[in-house]
Write a structure and sequence with these properties.
Length: about 375
C-alpha cells in the first residue's frame, strides 16, 4: 500500500476540459440515485483508455427525469500521484442525504491497478435538492472496495457490501493484516454513518471481484449474493452478518459480471442480470479456463417470495457489451436502471425506466416505460 492513497483528494467542483464528455475516451461502471425532490444523479468512472492511474470518477445531474444530463458537476481525480479513483456508487440514506462512494488505490504505471488494500471513501450532501450542493469532507470508511449500494436492516444498521479482493487481483498484494478478510464482507454503521466497522464476511468459492449485494429476508436472515466465475454465488447469515454459511451456487446464472438486486417499496425483490446464460456452461468455461462469456440480454425479474422464484422478464437491452446495472426506485414506484455499453468502443452510459408491471408483463405496458435511454456517450477511444 502507498501512503499517498490514504490521503483525501480534493473534490473538483469546476471540472477541467479533460473531465468533460468530449475528452473522455473510456468510461463505465455507473451508479444512479434520486433525490427526495426528484433530481437524478449518476456517477461512473473514466480517465485514460482503461483501468489505471489516470482514472477519475464523475458526478452528473438531471432535473428532468433523465431526458437531459449535465456535464460533470463534481469530479474525484487524484491525478498526478499514481492514485486512481474508481468504482463509484450513489446512495440516498434514510435521512435523505446523498452519499457518493468511491474506491481509491495506488496504481503505478506498470499495469497494476490495485495496491491490494484499496480503500472505500465517501462524501455526502445533506440537501441534494439544494440549488448549490454542499458536500462533507472525504472520509475513508474501510479497507476494500464497494461499488453497490448499502442495505438498511430492520434494526437501522447500515450494511455496506465491501470486498477485499485478494493477492494477484489487480496485481496487488493484500497486507498481512487483511489476509483473513479477503472476500465478500459486510461493514456496518449503527449510528447513521458517523462511524463504520467490519462485522463479518462470506467465503464463496470461485469468487471474482465479489461485487456483492446484501438483502434482508423476511425471516430475518441476510442473503449475500456474490459475483463468481460461474455466475452468482450465495451465502446466508442468521446473526446479522457476523457469521455466514459456506458459499454455494445460487443458480441465478450470469456471465461473471455485476448484477443488481434490491427490495422494492412493494416488498418484492427486483433482480437485473444477464438472462441468456446458463450456470452449467459457466462452470464448464471456468474449469476449461476459457474466456468469459459475452455480457448481453440485460433483463429485469421480480420475486414475490424472497427470491425463491422469479417472475416476468423485461429485456432491457439485448446488445452484446451491456453490463454493470445499478438502480433506484422513486416515490411513485418508477424504477430506473443504469448500465454501461461498450466501455471502450462506444463509451455509452444508458438507462431504462419502468415499473413492476412492465417486468411482470415482459414488455413495456406503462406510460413511464422507456428503454435504452442515453445518459452519456463519448464515442470511444480516439486516435
Amino acid at each position: 500500500m502507498n501512503d499517498d492513497s490514504l490521503n483525501p483528494v480534493e473534490i473538483i467542483y469546476t471540472p477541467d476540459a479533460k473531465h468533460k464528455t468530449a475528452s473522455r475516451q473510456f468510461q463505465g461502471i455507473p451508479g444512479v440515485a434520486m433525490s427526495p425532490g426528484g433530481s437524478l444523479f449518476a456517477t461512473w468512472y473514466s480517465g485514460g483508455v482503461n483501468e489505471g492511474p489516470e482514472n477519475f470518477a464523475v458526478l452528473v445531474q438531471s432535473s428532468d427525469l433523465g431526458r437531459t444530463w449535465s456535464e460533470p458537476v463534481a469530479v474525484i481525480d487524484p491525478s498526478g500521484r499514481n492514485i486512481r479513483a474508481f468504482d463509484p456508487a450513489l446512495w440516498l440514506d434514510p435521512q435523505g442525504r446523498l452519499w457518493w462512494f468511491w474506491a481509491q488505490s495506488f496504481s503505478p504505471k506498470d499495469g497494476t491497478i490495485s495496491d491490494g488494500a484499496n480503500g472505500l471513501w465517501a462524501i455526502f450532501t445533506a440537501d441534494p435538492d439544494a440549488e448549490i450542493l454542499t458536500w462533507s469532507e472525504p472520509v475513508r470508511i474501510a479497507d476494500g472496495i464497494m461499488m453497490n449500494k448499502p442495505t438498511v436492516l430492520a434494526d437501522g444498521t447500515w450494511a455496506l457490501p465491501v470486498a477485499i479482493w485478494g493477492d494477484g487481483i489487480g496485481g496487488g498484494k493484500v497486507p498481512a493484516s487483511l489476509a483473513s478478510q479477503c472476500g465478500a464482507n459486510m461493514v456496518v454503521s449503527t449510528d447513521n454513518g458517523q462511524t463504520f466497522s467490519y462485522r463479518g464476511g462470506a467465503a464463496v468459492p470461485h469468487r471474482c471481484f465479489d461485487e456483492h449485494m446484501i438483502v434482508e429476508l423476511k425471516d430475518g436472515r441476510l442473503w449475500m449474493l456474490v459475483r463468481t466465475f460461474y455466475g452468482i454465488g450465495q451465502s446466508f447469515s442468521s446473526d446479522q452478518g457476523r457469521t455466514w454459511t459456506p458459499g454455494e451456487n445460487s443458480g441465478l446464472g450470469g456471465p461473471n459480471s455485476r448484477f443488481f438486486i434490491r427490495r422494492l417499496s412493494s416488498g418484492n425483490l427486483i433482480l437485473v442480470n444477464h438472462a441468456d446464460t446458463s450456470p452449467e456452461m459457466a462452470v464448464k468455461l471456468y474449469i476449461d479456463g476459457k474466456t468469459w462469456r459475452n455480457r448481453s440480454h440485460l433483463t429485469a425479474f421480480i420475486s414475490d417470495d424472497d427470491g425463491k422464484t422469479w417472475k416476468g422478464g423485461l429485456l432491457l437491452d439485448e446488445r452484446a457489451g451491456v453490463s454493470y446495472p445499478d438502480g433506484a426506485e422513486d416515490k411513485e414506484g418508477v424504477i430506473r436502471i443504469i448500465y454501461d455499453y461498450e466501455r471502450h468502443k462506444e463509451g455509452a452510459i444508458c438507462m431504462a425506466s419502468f415499473r413492476e408491471a412492465d417486468v411482470l408483463a415482459g414488455k413495456c405496458v406503462t406510460p413511464q416505460a422507456e428503454l435504452k435511454i442515453l445518459v452519456n456517450k463519448t464515442g470511444g477511444i480516439r486516435a
